[in-house]
Amino acid sequence: MWERDPTAMRSALARHDEILRSAIEESGGSVFKTMGDAFCAAFFSVPGALDAALSAQRALHAEEWDEGSVIRVRMALHTGAVEERGGDYFGPALNRVSRLLSAGHGGQTLLSLAAQELVRDALPVDVRLEDLGERRLKDLFRPERVFQISAPDHPSEFPPLRTLESHSNNLPLQPTPLVGREREVLEVCGRLRQEEVRLLTLTGPGGTGKTRLALQAAADLLEDFDDGVFFVALATVTDPDLFLKEIAAALGLQDSGDVPLEEILKEYLGRRELLLVLDNFEQILSAAPLAGGILSAAPRLKVLVTSRIPLGIYGEHEYAVPPLSIPDPKRLPDIGALSQFESVRLFIERAGAAKAGFEITNENAPAVAEICARLDGLPLAIELAAARIKLLPPKAILTRLANRLKLLTGGAKDLPARQRTLRGAIEWSHDLLDEGERTLFARLAVFSGGRTLEAIEAVCDAEGDLPIDAFDGVSSLLDKSLLTRDEGPQEEPRFVMLETIHEYAREKLEESGEAEETKRLHAEYFLSFAEEAEPELVGAEQIEWMDRLEAEHDNLRAALSWSMEAAEVESVLRMAGSLSLFWSVRGYSSEGRGWCEEALARDADHESPMRAKVLGGLGIMAWRQSDYERAEQSLGESLALYRGSGDGKGEAISLLYLGKAAIDRNELDLASELLSEGESMCRSVGDTANLADILNISAIVAMARGDLVGANTILEEALGLARAAGHIRCLALTTSNLGINAMLEGDYEEARALMEEALELNLALKDRGNHAVSLHNLGLIALLRGDPEQAAVLCAQSTQMFGDLLDSIGVTISLDALAAVSGQRGEVGKAVRLWGAAQALRDAMRVSQPPDDKEVLEPFVEAARSSLEAAAFRAAWEEGRAMTQEQAVALALQDIGNGEHTARAEPA
Fold it and tell me: Which residues of the chain have pLDDT under 50?
């Protein structure tokens, strides 16, 4: 109609909408969603829904439509339990009514048995319900007894319902409804509707739900194939010679013996428009050419295959079936939004079937979310876990998931053996591997969080004894769905195992007797990788190398753990020393300090140069977390060892951070002395990158002494050195300091531009500590520009980031800024309490307020002092001093919304 007469159709559709909305609302219903020209409505009772349907159908039938734009509407009524979220409804009842609706024709109104039971005794006198019998809806769930409304002024003659019975098929009914997969079903159907796609293979590891997805797509495609859709189950077939017999049996064809079965099938299928679903093809791959031959002989035939391995024949298109969507247990949405994740919806559905009355609550939601995440969103694994709800609550299931292969057993007895346990599903794939593939599969278990091809070749074939070429083996395991491919940094592919498969691979590695040797090779490789990365972390490619270390962080942790357990203390020291800057910049200071402290405690050689590097890294991370006592102790020991070994570059780095700590304690003369010595050392050894860092900190001393011109001169030199060295981290710091200088000079526009540039650089680096500093400084600039609301949002973000990083000094400067915001809002008492709390925290750490912050914020403090009685000011100040850091932060963040002025934040 749209193509024939858009103007008339637009008018007709507007009238259609008016009629439907009016009928629904007058009968006490509510339209909760529209999709295209479809209306989804909810009612308090089935009679109300029936009244709306009758009223709407009669009005539509009586309407005088323009010629060529007559509108006929199909309607369906069903009732069931649903979940309300954000004004929308979710649950199996929605899926059921959708399938019921799809069975109808324009002008027809259908009811489910559940709806009919609740309305049959309250029918209007002129209305009856015609029983159309049990019908198999396209959701493949249990048959539904369908009823049709018959009434005066209501059409009652229609073609047969569009259910499974109306088209040739043998699609099996399913014991449970399909949960989720709406996008995947649409994508598979869309692919098969493309003329050039005649063979589509759904691939994925065991338990991803390939079969259920294929069945639903096949049901949705029934009307696209005049001669039907047929399902061929190959799960129990291991002899390729039986392949054609299974197809013939599904189609109801007989093997006469006189004519080859292949010819019978080609002749039969060559005259038909038909879809074949070949399920579980992986164990008879040698029969793939037969499938290709049949396709060639039947131009209107299409084939949908499920297999853990692609068929590898001409014209094949592959669709990798993803796991169900999973929540991030570390960032859970509110309980109302949790079931938007398909994995959680599936757990809730299956748990409810196993134990009546099960529901998601605030108490069990975190455990359910983590169960789904740790099971990789695999439908089979989630169903098996949910079945355990009869015995164990979610928290207990989660505790036992350490050995998920043992826990997840006991599936439905009518399922194939391989689907009754998670182990069975994985063993099914493992049994398809040859000897070389099995060896590689087991050795790959040594990796954690992914692996590159280079790492696989170096670790798994270090001795040249892998019975298969590593590249070919990875390709084969990828095809067999035991590996998946992700894009790593710089588009370097990484190969990942789902954790459920990884656990099975670890068992195989232990059984092989190669576990310890493989772990040693893995640790050696990643020690070499860390040492290769270290010098690049201050070079032109520092972002790329930081990202590579981030991608390999789980492998580096595994290497450190094994080395520590194996008493390879020197290896731990070397790796910790190489990684300390990465840990510091990327916000892993607590973890990094733990590794450094343990390695140092186990080290018997207290004079080694490697110990100096680890002590220096430990000192930097302790400084980042405002632990000045440990920072100065470690940096002092590091400096002494470097001086003893004549390592000028290491000495300069220790002097640099000792100078930073002295500035924080407001010991400017000491800081100047330390930095001057470090500068001389850098110049003598030609260390440009660290020289730029030292000049940056020297400029802070100049600013603290009020020499803004001198500071600017120092910063310009540092900027040139940083650019020449490609030292982006130093470039970000220099730009930030130039912004502070501009702020102190009163040029707020220049200050903001420079600070936003520094923020962008810190975002690129993912330097969380300096990212927080940039947000804080932008907040100060906003405050000085007269925008306290923007300042509040920016400083609230910095407060939270500093807290996450355990940077107590950072928290205090943010509290100072948020106090000024409170003062600007007229909350003077709150402002004074926050200033008192911040000062008490600094006193406890024996540090001073940064000079630039003090200069900017002092007028705000004086304004508060002048607006309160002296006694009231002192009382509020002392009240703040008595607060803990947590109490002060909670007070500061009260009444601060997200606002419109949020700065872009890096994901944690």
Answer: 411, 413, 898-908
